[in-house]
Design goal:
Blueprint (H helix, E strand, L loop, with lengths): L3 H30 L4 H11 L2 H12 L4 H11 L2 H9 L8 H10 L2 H13 L5 H27 L11 H13 L3 H16 L7 H21 L1
């Protein structure tokens, strides 16, 4: 039914999909507990389709942050996608516009990493189908896990106060990503600024922390470079 390269992309993504399930469940549960209706929570997942950005947006919505702060925060967190796009775009330059739009929507860390490695090592691969297999599998599992989390969240009593799950997930992501000095400095500076700015108006402490973390990490990386 599907080309061999599509199935190869799905197989390559399988090991990463297991880690998406609990992440997606937390995103769905957190969205409902932030006050979103099930339809709004599912719509957010389909439109945004970005794990860390979704969780950050949900956390800010739960704190009654302004829409502008929510959007800016999500954009800052997802700035890396611009670099991914610039890197992978040459492999898709022969595609029609509608397929470029589909590929841009499906772009994630996992889909990019698997595809860019495959494209560099195997010139005989159908790039579009392989990418659709890998990135499409990530999309499908994320949406299913989020939807499951949404309906699971509607049955969890408010007194359980599971809001701690969102910062816990971010801490898990942080620990796995701090693998060198620039990232360590970015985590320490960004986290410190965010904590200091916890009472800043419009929840700007989070944006300030993100910008300070990125800036300090880049400076250290250039200095070590």
């Amino acid at each position: 039914m599907f080309p061999d390269d599509f199935r190869a992309g799905v197989r390559a993504a399988l090991p990463s999909l297991l880690g998406l399930v609990p992440f997606g469940l937390v995103a769905g549960i957190a969205a409902v507990n932030a006050g979103l209706s099930p339809l709004q929570a599912i719509g957010l997942s389909f439109v945004v389709f970005a794990g860390a950005s979704q969780l950050a947006a949900v956390d800010l919505l739960a704190q009654d942050a302004s829409l502008a702060v929510v959007v800016v925060t999500a954009v800052v967190i997802n700035l890396r996608m611009a670099m991914y796009s610039a890197s992978i775009a040459p492999y898709f330059e022969s595609l029609r516009r509608r397929w470029e739009l589909v590929c841009s929507y499906l772009l994630t860390d996992v889909g990019y990493a698997l595809s860019i490695t495959e494209f560099a090592d195997d010139e005989g691969t159908s790039r579009l189908w392989y990418y659709l297999g890998a990135a499409g599998a990530v999309w499908a599992i994320w949406q299913l896990a989020t939807i499951a989390g949404v309906f699971l969240g509607t049955g969890i009593p408010e007194q359980w106060n599971i809001g701690f799950a969102v910062p816990l997930v971010f801490l898990t992501l942080l620990v796995s990503e701090v693998s060198d000095r620039p990232r360590l400095v970015a985590a320490l500076i960004g986290g410190s600024v965010a904590v200091v700015g916890v009472n800043w108006p419009l929840n700007l402490g989070l944006i300030g922390g993100a910008l300070a973390g990125v800036g300090s990490g880049v400076l250290v990386d250039r200095r070590d470079g």
